[in-house]
Amino acid sequence: MPPGFAPSYDLMKPSSSLVNVALIQRACSSNTALNIKATLAAADRAAKAGAQIICTQELFTSQYFCQSEDHDNFRLAESIPGPTTEAFQKLARRRSVVIVASLFEKRAAGVYHNTAVIIDADGSILGIYRKMHIPDDPLFYEKFYFTPGDLGFRSWRTRYAKIGVLICWDQWYPEAARLTAMQGAEILFYPTAIGWHPGEKQKYGALQHSAWETIQRGHAVANGCFVAVPNRIGHEVLKGVGGDGLEFWGQSFVAGTSGEILAKATTDREETLIVPLDLGKVDTTRTHWPFLRDRRIDAYGGLTRRLID
Q: pTM for the full model?
């Protein structure tokens, strides 16, 4: 296994129900070209090591610019398709891998999205997912930059598995996971950029991370599917913003269909997790824990209301 890779256990022999998933965990610099080059190289190494579906972290082409509201940051956005998607399409076609790449999309003048592009193993773009839930918290000023997604929750039949893609803040919403899983998704991918405010880490850090991991493991349990979450690392104090910045907590992970952790990365090291997943377990889990069967769809109308008095 090449240096920098962290398989959770030995890669199994290929089978009709087995797929090797790779999550790329990196620190990002202010140099967009270098970030793209490094992520392409990591994806290429993952493909050589046997990965079949590769997912980047959220907004991997730059540092997390949403720490401030700055119109200059809109220059980081790009069209889809565009130069970055074309580079990943070329890699997907050459290595016969599926790639989920998280990008800052310029849709039109004044309309921007936090978007993931889904590229099949022949290099074709199967579709895009635009982040539906947009946060607005200290140093996470995403509402300034991103128009909420308008494509809904979707899944795609790739060459190797049927996958769903959601993005970061979406991971706190069971409705998003459920609606994606209801379309048959066997793996839910969550490209992510989440971390601590350094001044809060000592008091709240462990609790915050535990909540983040627990709710996503819960999505795996409730929907009988795999959950794969690549997150960035690094302490980013942005030029012109200053302050304490954000300390991204890494710990990218893959959860099994019963919510068990199959693999987890470190808090502070660049690495690529390669994890073999037996897709047959999705059918087995959903049959033995038939949550989808027993849903009371006649009683859930209240979910379309903000609150119920």
A: 0.94
